[in-house]
Amino acid sequence: MSQNFRIALRFLTAKKRAMLMSLSCIILGVGLFIVTQAATTGFQEFFIKTILGTNGAILIQDKVQATMRSIASGGYNSGYEIRQKEGQKYIEGIDYPEILTGGVKAFRNVSGVSAVLRETVTIHSSFREQTGQAYGILLADHLRVSSLGSQIVAGSIEDFRVQQAGALVGRVIADKLQLDPGDTFEIVDKNDVHHYRVSAIYQTGVNDIDSVRVYLKMDDARALFKKPTGATYLQVSLIERDRAREDAAEMTNSLGYRADAWQDREKSWLGVFKAFRVATAITVSVFTLIAGLAMFNTLAMIVLEKTKEIAILRSMGYTREDISTIFLWQAAIVLAIGTLVGCALGGIITYAVSQYPMPITGIFTSHKFLVQWSKWHYIEAVIISVLTVMVASLMPSRRAARLEPGDIIRGTAQ
Q: Which of 63, 72, 98, 145 could make an S-S bridge to 114, C-beta 3.0–4.6 Å?
């Protein structure tokens, strides 16, 4: 243990209460930062997993067609024209989904492709009716690109596989229409009424999805919509989800269909989560800022009260760097203890929050608080504390280093 460190420990005992205030603020700042970041990223990750498990990483829809305009060259009726590209036109739907599926599967990052036929319909039960959307799917393909199989909360996916005119109904729709597995209901599309039986009820946890979607087998959907061929879009799952934008751009250029990555489809919600995460980080960092201000004030008071000791140390041969190091050691000791205890406190509170039963409804549906464990939450908390406290400690330490023994004896030290 260095002599400078020993002296720093002795100086710390001179201002126990002030140091304890700085220490408690560091602990609270680090701990709350970890908890809030774990919670905000937990909800964001839940949202991303739900979207990927429901809508896929990429949606391929609408054929891209370049629009052209002709400009006569050489005068009117010259017979010579120049065609200039003016923009892009999107033709709704996919005419040959089987052929396009083969092209999509050629991309190395693709793990599954599912053709989907979708239309807005009216859903009737014995109690009420509501507007929804019917999705025609090939079950085996769709299970490869979604989490539908694990989202069943009542009934059985196998019943849907084998049942004639079976349907998968969202939890919110089932509650509104008072439907249970085995119940029958009607779907009306363009005045055509078709009867279906609830094979199972699913719940994604996102109300905007669970309140409108009804899944049908592709053949039943084609009969309902009177569309013997084609699809509305292809849903694509990826091995590496973060490469969705690059893969979508490549698919658009190669296949001639518009491909939308999940980051672009959900850009607004992802922006909300990012803003919320930054806002909570700034809010809880106030504790760390208070810790820095308290450390600045405490060290400044120690400099004023320990001028004689500083003069003695300088007379004994201690350099300005040594004096500055002694005061920085004091800040470092408090900072080290505060960050260690704060990280432990943050981990304990995060675990406690994740286990506490707290039903959440609204945008999400969850039975407990959602958190995500990440080492970066701890690293970011420590970095913020180190920067705040050590920067606040520089000025008092430099002031102590500038004191000269002669000035202190004469009483003219500044």
A: 145
